Amino acid sequence: MGAMDTYPTRRSTVYGEAVVASSSPLAASAALEVLAEGGTAADAAVAAAMCLTVVEPTNNGIGGDLLALVWDGERMHGLNASGRSPQAWTPEHFAQYSEMPKRGWDAVTVPGAVAGWAALSGRFGRLDFARLGRDAVRHAEQGWRVGPIVAQDWGRAAGILGEIEDFAATFMPGGRAPREGEKVIFADHAATLREILETGGESFYRGALAERIVAHAEAGGGLLTAEDLASHEVDWCEPIAATWAGHELYEIPPNSQGLAALVAIRILERMGVDPSGGGGADPDAAETVHLQVEAMRQALTVLHGDIADPAWMRTEVEDILSNEAIDAMAARISGSRAAVVVTEPPTAGGTVYLSVGDADGMMVSLIQSNYRGFGAGLVVPGTGIALHDRGAGFVLTEGHPNQVAGGKRPLNTIIPGFLTRDGAPVCAYGVMGGPMQPQGHLQVMHRLLAGQSVQEALDAPRWFVEGDGELRLEVGWPDEVAAALEAKGHRVTRTGPGDRTYGGGQAVRRLPDGGYAGGSDPRKDGHAVAR
């Protein structure tokens, strides 16, 4: 059954020997050109990622973080390029706040995206690093036209950040946010990308760009130093995984929130929810949604209580995923009634996600973000570097493993996902959007295992559980599903068209005979392309 047979969609599944799925057509095209020149999936992913900092500045930038999963043809690799907090950050410094700041210098940790690009290129690339930014520089210098969803997000951000001089000078040409179809030129951004490409990213951490970042921090009272930038290192890590219905879901280990997705699918596996077997759980049925939501609520409790920079975690990942722990969580779930589970209220995020599969069998699942939209509202003068607000991922609670401190990675919402079966790649996928991400990984995985196409799995309506227990249902869920969930005790809210709660996703699936099927979320401006 195809996507158009079941859910409203603007797109069809795309097939090819190599496929790119991105939230921007311009970024997807940049990646496809790299593949045509003999580049690897990693080369293509970096090209798209650089391009996205230009053409989707509402959700990511040069001053953000990056995580990736890479299937090299034989095994999985994890890349955590997220940055750490300034060494000078202390709990005492943040005692002036009632919650972690979302704007300004006290929200800015070291940006890791640039180091992530260089690391991916250096380890898995075939083309020169300088080549990978060609399209990104061209769009920034010569101009690019704003897509409809980016225009909407830009307008909303301007209403929030427009009074910040840094932001307005860079992102409000003519005193307002650009409108759909208008051409935008980012000359400063282009010059910064050229500097990054020429120096292999070194300038950003130990050169001229680093000096400009630190000077801006000093002028604004920020505690970020040259030493903080120079000491940044990416981590090539061993991905963590859990099994559901004979498939393995891979995630980046903490400080990533990917562990929450693994906890949820382990609970569903323990409860006998089988999306792939005969008479398996229908992902569109209220009974299935109820169990998914209850499993995710248990996982979110773990997320907000235990997950942090691994150097500060009190509980090992293996213990969180142990049979004993999962059994205890599963035992708290009733098939007939919603539990009263309140976690920390989640907050919105802004992120881009892309996936690539090349003709040689390499696949990349990559995500990068400025966290909340444009980030902290700070832009380094003359550079186009919009700095993320990833420090807002810390908490102020004394003794909490994720309590703010110096030289520490905060809990990070961005998570790339990857499915395998019996040691073979199945699908590189992800769902962007702050706390929606583990919830989206669960829902899309369920649909893929239930036999839906990649496009159908992305088109389908989603649910989102709030930290206060509210269950939000996207447009597209039938009234009878909402009523059945309410009858089980869920506090259901039906949201209207265009609600950004439910994120956006991409997926590239490996076909049994080689080649790929690609899908792209209709909630974003992008698409999947093939060659």
Folded structure, characterized:
This protein is an alpha+beta fold and 531 residues long. It is built from 19 helices and 21 strands. The strands form 5 sheets. Strands 1-20-19-15-14-9-8 form a 7-stranded antiparallel sheet. A 7-stranded antiparallel sheet has the order 7-4-3-11-10-2-21, covered by helices on one side. Strands 16-17-18 form a 3-stranded mixed sheet. It is globular. It starts with a helix and ends with a strand. 57% of the residues are buried. The mean pLDDT is 94.
- Low-confidence segments, given as residue ranges, are none
Give the N-to-C terminal Cα separation.
Answer: 24 Å
Percentage of residues in strands: 15-25%
Radius of gyration, rounded?
21 Å
Mean pLDDT: 94
Count of alpha/pi helices: 19
Number of strands: 21
Strand order of the largest sheet: 1-20-19-15-14-9-8
Principal-axis shape equals globular
**Helical fraction:** 25-40%
Structural class: alpha+beta
Largest sheet: 7 strands, antiparallel
